[in-house]
Write a structure and sequence with these properties.
By secondary structure, the chain is α/β, with parallel strands linked by helices. It is 37% helix and 18% strand. The chain is built from 22 helices and 18 strands. The strands form six sheets. It has a five-stranded parallel sheet with strand order 11-14-17-10-18. The chain has a four-stranded mixed sheet with strand order 1-2-4-3. A three-stranded parallel sheet has the order 5-8-9. A hairpin with a 5-residue loop joins strand 6 and strand 7 (115-116). The chain binds adenosine-5'-diphosphate, magnesium ion and zinc ion. Adenosine-5'-diphosphate is lined by residues 197-200, 221, 223-229, 395. Magnesium ion binds at residues 227-228, 306, 348.
Amino acid sequence: MSNVIYTAGISGIEGYLIEVESDFTPALPSFDIVGLPDAAVKESRERIRAAIKNSGLMIPHRKIVVNLAPAAVRKEGSHFDFPIAMSILCHDNGLNTYFIENAIFLGELSLDGTLREVDGVLPIVISAYEKGIKNVFLPEKNAKEAAIIEDINVYPVKNLLDCFLFMKNEKGLEVYRREQEQKGNSILPFAEDFADVKGQESVKRALEVAAAGAHNCVMVGAPGSGKTMIAKRLPSILPPLSLQESLEVTKIYSVAGLLSREDPLIRVRPFRQVHHTASTIGITGGGKTPKPGEISLSHRGVMFLDELPEFRRDSLETLRQPLEDGKITVTRVTGSATYPCSMMVVASMNPCPCGFYSSGTHRCSCTATQIKNYLKKISGPLLDRIDLHIEVPSVEYEDLADKKSDYNSSVMRERVQKARDIQLKRYQGLGFYTNSEIPSSMIDTFCVLGQEENTLMKNAYESLGLSARAHNRILKVARTIADLDNSERITAAHLAEAIGYRSLDKKYWN
Ligand SMILES: Nc1ncnc2c1ncn2[C@@H]1O[C@H](COP(=O)(O)OP(=O)(O)O)[C@@H](O)[C@H]1O
Ligand SMILES: [Mg+2]
Ligand SMILES: [Zn+2]
């Protein structure tokens, strides 16, 4: 006879249902698992055997073969221990078939039978829910994360024996009681406000545009001009995550094993400051058991690359395609995993090694070759994917002496939110949310230019030596500027401002 227990695997950040089936034949006692990677099988077999024995339960005196189906898909993670053990315990024990058929099981076993917390719970529970499964049995510490999905009964399980006795109707298990929690859409108070940044109104305006359309930007300016300070204030003007976005981001952090057990739902847009010493895998994701990298941990938020030229060139180059696609696929010997990465890149850099090239306040002490080599660290193709090139001038003394600026985060956030609302409405049902994500096939639909604007664009294209990509990105930025102006039409003024944000590559790279 055989017994089927449900669990799930994870590919990228999506879960998929897996059947655990045990077969018992009256032959020399043995225990094999098929369908798992070799190394994992060995370890999990030992844990399962010990956990069953140390719970005072019996492993049937048979030849046992456990099959994880479908066989073709890769199975990773230690959460298969518990469902495999349950499948073995089904044998001859008269367990409650309602739960066996309508539940999903996941968790790692320790040798004494205690259930240990695992990663990736949210995508697993979502996949079960989508298949109509009504109950989930998992480690206590993972209960709150599973409970994010409201229409499924979550059973926190302390150890294997408790669950076994529950399935035999000999002991009760409490369903996890959800607290009334507010989900998504919460505006949190930000400690850092744009009001602290004195002067620099053109820079603030550019960041407002970037935030409104989720565009990539790079700030170029002398040391001490406030680039880092300004970037750190960006989260304070971004709109709150919608529940849908919250779930997307939470799934990524779940798979990465970075969720808080106490408050697992991520409600605030990620802001990831990546250090320039970060490894390429740390940035892109991957590794032996693949995990999302910084680029995906920034999904629906901001990835901040401070001092861009300090980064390894090959690390930066790997960002090119994902920036275009909004997703990244990491390949390994055993297969590949795809993670979403729709986010804003915000970068900062000095214009030259000494930092004062064209600063207006200090003399630059670098030679032309030094400057050239410095800027060469950032390739043209990467720069081409950054929509706004923002020049950050050194702060004027008079500005510094000023009181707090009334160009503050709250007024900026309000304008950003209005522009985002327009975009959400316009792109409803199209699978994207912001102007920066308009696919090239739809540029002609959403970024229409009149005759005057067309001439302006043509002149800029020729005089700035723009690429086709830069051309499209300018149109998307112009769309955002028009949206901030609550104008369905992109005017020459909107377009001129957008083109203005592209002039730095000409100035510094040629
Ligand atoms: N516009 C500004 N208004 C107020 N303080 C500023 C401004 N620009 C710079 N500062 C001050 O100078 C410090 C250094 O700025 P920082 O952001 O580190 O410059 P950068 O990253 O461009 O080198 C900030 O922490 C802040 O105290
Ligand atoms: Mg800095
Ligand atoms: Zn210099």
